[in-house]
Specification:
The structure holds two protein chains of two kinds. Chain A is mainly alpha-helical. Chain A contains eleven helices and no strands. Chain B is an alpha+beta fold. The chains are: A mainly alpha, B alpha+beta.
């Protein structure tokens, strides 16, 4: 059992959720309520990681994060080590890869709020920010919970992109999913089996928690 | 707080549907925007609230300008002193009655909110329901919560969008009574959108008829109904005069109430309203009988000396609608063409208008 890989995966998952959900909420809100040209294009862009082969996505991220790219150079100057094959690079890739898993449930939840409720919030004297906090957020909680759990579970399981931009550096970029592959390659079935079981349990647990949570806070109507 | 100001509205748009509406609602009035569904009434209401922006619009209340596209003025919806009751009430499903009201009390210091919530709950008769969420309320209760929430901000203007469309029959009538009662307790200018003329006849003091995006008639309800000049009714409703009357006295021995509306003095079956209060009465043209001599031996309380103002077609070739003046007040009477001939009912002719006490519909 590779405990380092497991804690790294969980750390990556939690950080991805913490950083991605707030940003994705604003993006989801923009897509749900905004009326602008090119919305279909933005939606397609957000959904891209769902259908793109992980290796293709990983390849482009590798190029974008590389030492030859402006982003890679800027990061190296600022932090002192390359972005690729680092935990930070992995985190950045994870944020991008998980965009559709975070945005889509929240966008659906926000779009399901009757327009009259948002109008009513404004006619109750709530500023746009107060309306988000007191009306939109509470009504979108099932969607937010789903987004968080899907993002977390998907981060634990992501393989292709992690391998492409992170490699398999113990304690830095080797996640459980990579460690399982690594153990199988080494004919260490016992370790691989145990870690697979841990991932399976965590995934089931996460789904169970969201479902219960969503049912409990979902407004009765 | 000084009283409510006059609400002046001028709206124009070409698309998505043409709209050209201009009217003003006097301070403290109940102005009905009446017209068929899809005539643009709701858009007008939303524009007043600041929920809808038009290319050419001016909305001002009292001395304050809320919208003026010529100067680029646009007060955001949450800063307008407006209460809005939505057609489907738009209650927040995740909040209890108490929390819905608290949400709209952001203008008050935190310490004053509980007192105000209690007052609103009493005003809208929601005692015992404060802890309930909308899903656990009946349709009528939801409507009262929506009304209380709209009043929570101490609005200068209360906007009601088809407030009785979602309820029917007896509940609709009882909600109308509640709104009328509430009107007597709170001083504000009300604009109500409706396609049901009963709402107009029972609640409104002023009427703006909106058809296909423009105003086809405007004036006081009393004047427009007395002149049978409400377009858009299209034979769906018998001509009837709607008037505001004052309760002068109750005759408990005879179980009658004496009402005075302008120069009309009427005795009607007991009206459940205190002496001195104002009630809305309606007198259908069908219920007003004309006579050339004072009749005897009839079960009649109201014999009014009138003068014929005009004779118009009664919607059927054998019928005539007679416009009558009783002093400065007006009545309508639907009679046969034959009666017009036999009584010699030309313009200016003196005549007696007989009104059965039970034919006077009083709404308190």
């Amino acid at each position: 059992m590779d405990w380092t890989a497991l804690t790294l995966s969980i750390r990556l998952g939690l950080l991805t959720v913490a950083l991605l959900v707030p940003v994705a909420f604003l993006l989801a809100r923009w897509l749900a309520f905004g009326r602008f040209r090119g919305r279909g294009f933005v939606e397609a862009l957000v959904a891209l990681p769902l259908i793109l082969p992980p290796t293709v996505l990983g390849y482009y991220l590798l190029v974008a994060f590389g030492r030859a790219s402006p982003l890679g150079q800027a990061f190296e100057v600022a932090v002192g080590h390359p972005l690729v094959f680092s935990f930070e690079g992995l985190l950045l890739a994870s944020l991008l890869v998980n965009l559709p898993f975070a945005v889509q449930p929240m966008q659906n939840a926000l779009a399901a709020i009757p327009p009259n409720l948002r109008d009513a919030a404004r006619c109750c004297g709530l500023s746009p920010l107060a309306a988000i906090r007191r009306v939109e957020l509470p009504l979108a909680i099932p969607g937010i919970a789903t987004a968080a759990v899907l993002t977390f579970a998907h981060t634990l399981g992501e393989f292709g992109v992690v391998l492409m931009v992170g490699g398999s550096i113990p304690g830095e970029t080797r996640t459980v999913a990579i460690a399982i592959y690594d153990r199988v390659q080494a004919f260490d079935d016992a370790s691989a089996g145990l870690m697979a079981l841990v991932l399976l349990t965590l995934s089931l647990l996460a789904l169970g928690i969201t479902n219960t949570l969503a049912r409990r806070v979902a407004p009765r109507s | 707080m000084d009283g409510p100001g006059e609400l002046r509205v001028r709206l124009r748009q070409a698309a998505p549907f043409p709209l050209s509406v201009e009217f003003s609602a006097p301070p403290g009035s109940v102005t009905a925007l009446f017209g068929p569904s899809g005539s643009g009434k709701s858009t007008v209401l939303r524009a007043i609230a600041g929920l809808h922006r038009l290319d050419d619009a001016r909305v001002a209340c009292g001395g304050r300008c809320w919208t003026d596209t010529s100067t680029g003025t646009f007060l955001p919806a949450h800063q307008r002193p407006v209460g809005f009751v939505f057609q489907d009430y738009a209650l927040f499903p995740h909040l209890t009655v108490q929390a819905q009201l608290a949400l709209a009390l952001g203008h008050l210091p935190r310490t004053e909110r509980p007192t105000r919530i209690a007052a609103l709950i009493a005003l809208a008769r929601l005692e015992g329901l404060a802890g309930r969420k909308p899903a656990a309320l009946s349709g009528g209760e939801q409507q009262r919560v929506a009304l209380a929430r709209a009043l929570a901000r101490d609005p200068e203007v209360l906007l009601l969008d088809e407030p009785f469309a979602a309820v029917d029959g007896a509940l609709r009538e009882s909600l109308r009574h509640e709104l009328a009662a509430l009107r007597r307790q709170v001083s504000l200018t009300v604009v109500i959108v409706t396609h049901d003329f009963d709402d107009v006849a029972k609640l409104a003091s002023h009427l703006v008829v909106v058809e296909r995006g423009s105003v086809s008639a405007a004036g006081t309800v009393a004047d427009l109904t007395a002149r049978n000049a409400v377009p858009g009714l299209g034979g769906t409703r018998e001509p009837a005069v709607a008037l505001d009357a004052c309760v002068v006295e109750h005759d408990s021995a005879r179980q009658l109430t004496h009402l005075v509306a302008g120069t009309l003095s009427l005795e009607v079956p007991t009206v459940p309203a205190p002496v001195g209060s104002s009630v809305r009465i309606q007198i259908g043209a069908r219920e007003v009988i004309l006579a050339s001599r004072r009749p005897e031996g009839l079960s009649l309380h109201n014999v009014l000396e009138a003068r014929v103002l005009a004779v118009e077609s009664g919607g059927h070739e054998a019928l005539r609608l007679i416009h009558l003046a009783v002093g400065d007040s007006r009545l309508l009477s639907l009679v046969t063409a034959d009666a017009v001939r036999s009584l010699g009912l030309g313009c200016g002719a003196p005549v007696l208008a007989l009104v059965k006490a039970v034919a006077v519909e009083a709404f308190a």
